[in-house]
Amino acid sequence: MAERDRLGRKTTAGGAWATRTVFGVLLLAAFLVPLALRGYWVRLLANVFMFGILAQGVNIIAGYCGYLALGNILFFGLGAYVTAVLMTHFGVPFPVAFAASGAGAVIFSAGIGLLILRLKGQYFLMATLALSELMREVISSLDITGGGRGLTLPMFTGGAATVNNFFYYLMLLLMLACTFCIWLIDRSYLGLAFKAIKFDEDAASVMGINPPPYKTAAWAISSLFTGFAGSAFAYWMGYIDPGVVFEITPSIKMYLMMVLGGAGTVWGPVAGALFIELVSELAWSRFMEYQFLIVGSILILTCLFTPKGLMDLVGKKFTWSLFTKGIRENKI
Amino acid sequence: MILQMIINGLLVGGLYASIGVSFSLVYGIMGIINLAQGTQIILGAYLTCAMVQFFHIDPFLTLPVSGFVLFCWGYAIQRCIINMVGKGGVVLTSLLTFGLNLVLINIILLIWNADFRGVNPAYAGKNFELFGATIPYVRLAVFFVAVVATVSLHWFLGHTQTGNAIHASAQNKRAAQIVGINIRHSYALTFAISSGLAGAMGTLYVILKPVSPFSGADLLMILFLVAVLGGLGNIPGALLGGVVMGLTDSFSVLCLGMQYQKIVLFLGFILVLIFLPRGFFGRRFYG
Amino acid sequence: MKGMIGIVVIVFSLVVLGCGSAGAQEAIKIGIIEPLTGPAAYDGQSVVEGARLAEEEINARGGVLGKQIRLVVEDGKADPAESVNAAEKLLVRDQVPVIMGAWASSATLAVMPVMKKNATPLLVETATSLKVTDPPSEWVYRICSNSAIDGQLMEKYLVPTLGFKKAAFMAANNDFGRAVVTFWSEAVKKKGGTVVLTEYHAPGEINFAPSLTKISTSGADSIIITSDIQTASNIIKQTYEMGLTKIKRLVTNGIPSEAIVKLAGVEASEGVLVHNYWVPFAPPKGQEAKNKQFMDKYTAKYPNKPVDKYAAFGYDGIRVIAQAIVTARAADPVKIKEALKKTKVDGLTGNIQFDDKNQARPYSSVSRIEKGKPKLVVRLN
Amino acid sequence: MKFLEGAGVSRYFGGLVAVNEVDFIVEKGEIFGLIGPNGAGKTTLLNMINGILPISAGKLYFQGQCLNGLKPHEITHLGIGRAFQIVRPFEGLTALQNVMVGGIFGSKPRKNTKEASRGAEEMLAFVGLSEKMNSQVAGLTIPDRKRLEVARALVMNPKLLLLDEVMSALNPKEVDAMMEMVTKVNSQGITVVMIEHVMRATMAICHRILVLHHGRRIAMDTPQEISQNEEVLKSYLGERFARMEAERRRTID
């Protein structure tokens, strides 16, 4: 018997059980990984989780709300620098700096969001790109941030394994928190409001939604988690400079992960991050000369054949027409 | 010095403008943000380097060839790949072009390796004085070619049948199809023109500056700024945008120093977006 | 649901596939982290190629401690996060007792804490940031130079010999560029010169005409250029276009003159001064045969590539490490660290021995490009 | 106090005048038609009423309150619902969720999701879409989409309903059904303003009609009068219609 959840989506009791079991096993496995694997693999997975957080960040603003914040790496850099400056110049302990990074990112995104979230689609996209470049340049020429020299953070105390495990669990928990937050949004009226804005902002406002506060909220949540990720990254690396934390490539990678996994789905971006990071790690270590070709081709094939992401394929029969569906729908 | 600064700004602004036009065109007609455009320019640059190396000819002579090669590439890629996701929205199309960008970089890497290339015609150091300002002949020539290319593109779109067909496909897809315009062909042609222009600009770019397979990223921000300042899809607007950007380059260095040049540029850009979201004279919104 | 499980299975089998690549080997492993892909790949590959020559040579002589040596190369992409991953891979998977790398200063600085935590020494071959050896870390040794040393050495020559009385700087706005400006400014000022203008640029900057106009009206008699190869050549090219060839131009920190000639052109680079470390065309007295031998071998193995300083530093780096393993009498990280302190190698890039900050002093010199060929002007030590 | 009143309402796009000093009054409880040739400014006028486009000049009043400068959602909360001409459902959502958006956000204070879900189901039943409640709107046919559009507007309990060509592209049978629905809605006390090209429907159910041409009001009257208005006949209903009308009148005379 098909039941419906609060937002009128069909759920079947049996399916929910299977899903819950698989997720439970995966979660347990994720928590146990540092016991079984060491060093490099823990680090690699922590990196995957970090990208999971970043991809979830863009998922909220772009996947749900339809606002393409291509320069979202801005908050990553901002979070990293808030932590670095507080820890090196003011001797603040990491937990406080971490919280301050999140707060800083939210304040910044909310403030600037009220101004630039009025811009439609592509103009917003470019404004965020320009903002992230602007932030990079400003940080490169300030004294307190070390300018282009970067900052060396106080070292994490503890042995090599402790460092890896600490950041592994930090990234894992952050990612789970972020995903939980999206899950809550997805099943509440907020999710409906975000999606309504994404599909047709004018129609949404005629239906009684006042878009600016919702958009700002979406961007603020997005920036909060991105800022946290930046903060953790800075402490993890121990050294940051503007070129490292404001690079544009990760920004595009986040979008790739989101689209590959499924934009506007709860778990899609995480799946995308896992897939892309592991595949590229293996492709890059084995087919060095062709790495861009491989990643580029994956990207093109994704856009052609699974434009709605891997999550869209879940629970469907694998047939040829499922794969050509994207082309049939999007072809001019 | 102020005159010299104005001339510097104008000369580099011409190149910025035509680079921006090639990007703006595709956006204006098809709504696609082509993230591969920077690397297409670099591909044009590499073609020029190769031709100069093999045939020992003047780099300016290679312009039609690199333009033509990129034109064909652009037509094929639009017809075979980009059209397949044409209706998929901005995220999908820009991710697709980013994928193309990576593939292009890899192709350049496989053919030419990762090291830098440049062409250096013997006349590069010739210049003349005008009211105390130095004007290098090469830069003047680059400026001239870039502006001619842009203006003739504008004329082509406004005054030829093909150009009108392209315009029609941009304004109303279905109506264009009804009057017998092959819309896939129009779109492919638009993309091809944009790529061809990019190839030609690659030739000019490499005359001024050495390139590596990754230099496309440096150009992407210029593309965005110029195209948005001029109003996306607006060719005369992009011309103005390029010149404004060139002048901003010059005067921010003069008044504040090079370190602050980018800050001025991006801050100015964001302010323009906030207060004049349709650029200097972008198209207006019709309900 | 089935699809989901399928994805999970694929991903995990990939993980397992990746895991099972390490095998037991008799040879002594030496880890190397270099950019093999991305914009810095060309230089990173040069280092690796130089290192491979050293590996072959040492193994041909019977290896060290009766065992062969084997280089394990990982791609750090000149990126801190990737380089740290690479280090972790080398330390955990391959259990290497010593690593050479990681090319870029930012990557090296990020790798350093990992080395300390794992108690394994790192030999730095190209990263110039002052922070690598200041404050010194007992686990980090450096064979290339840094800006403080360079500034000190240039003091005797910059104003007195080369006549840089009113110098202008055009430097990249990063750690490297700013360090050069700081120490070389001191060198100019101490000998009575003045610094008339300092302009920092972003990496990859395109248009230098405005800055050059400013410099030409500032009365500067010389420009000191500190940047990557591409940008430095671009600046040289634009000085030529603007007709500023009367102003002396000096490119710092070992950018090969051949690259400048190739990218900026023979005419534009006429008279440009180049500050270099290892220079193939003018080996120090008594080193000629050794240099020729190295260059011949390199050209034989990599015929399409000109030999550069990166290859030389890679070659020397591996020789220093091999020597340290011999002194340590064991492939043990802690013993190698101790041995490195005492190691002396008469290398191509300098007479290598480490001071109290674990810093070696490579040869350096200034050359002038004349008709596309560099000519030695002054040897700095 | 008039129910909905426009005084000298105008809208300019750059130099182009889309709506030119239009005065009109809609009485409470009536079905008010809005007709005119393409490009006459009908949709622009509706867009101004619910705030999507700002008013360039003139004033709009709804139950005595001035609408100038209000945001679309504020106008919605005053009790004005809108169905779009080019149906604009939220493509990624199901039919039920589409209607729920209106249910949740359409009134102030916001309704909770449970209530909204129930209300939405009822509304879908009213427009006859119960069976397709859980299908993605991308899969709906044009008539279904039009019904969904009306349901989305109705679920907000509007006092005034704006319908923009909800009958175009429907076959005669479907038009009849839609006409029936509109009159049913109206009989519940909801005032309707509708743009319609299907003259049969307009003439049959509208109480009064406003005719726009080149952004100007050329007539506002009962259907009867409108069908005999010389200017309307010439500019909108067309020469052929005019000749037919003249012929008809002559035979009657």
Mean pLDDT score of chain A, rounded? 85
Envelope shape of chain A = globular
- Unreliable residue runs of chain C: 14-25
As a percent range, the share of strand residues of chain C is 15-25%
Find the count of extended strands of chain C (DSSP E, 2+ residues): 14
CATH homologous superfamily label of the largest domain in chain C: Response regulator
SSE ordering of chain A: EEHHHHHEHHHHEHHHHH
Radius of gyration of chain C: 22 Å
Assign the structural class of chain C, choosing from mainly alpha, mainly beta, alpha/beta, alpha+beta, or little secondary structure: alpha/beta
Give the largest interface pair and sizes. Answer: A-B, 49 and 50 residues
* Alpha carbon gap, first and last residue of chain A: 40 Å
So what's the overall shape of chain C? globular
Strand order of the largest sheet of chain C: 7-6-8-9-10-13-14
**Biggest sheet of chain A, in brief?**
2 strands, antiparallel
For the record, the count of structural domains of chain C works out to 2
- Radius of gyration of chain A (CA) equals 20 Å
Tell me the strand order in the biggest sheet of chain A.
1-2
As residue ranges, the low-confidence spans of chain A are: none
Largest sheet of chain C: 7 strands, mixed
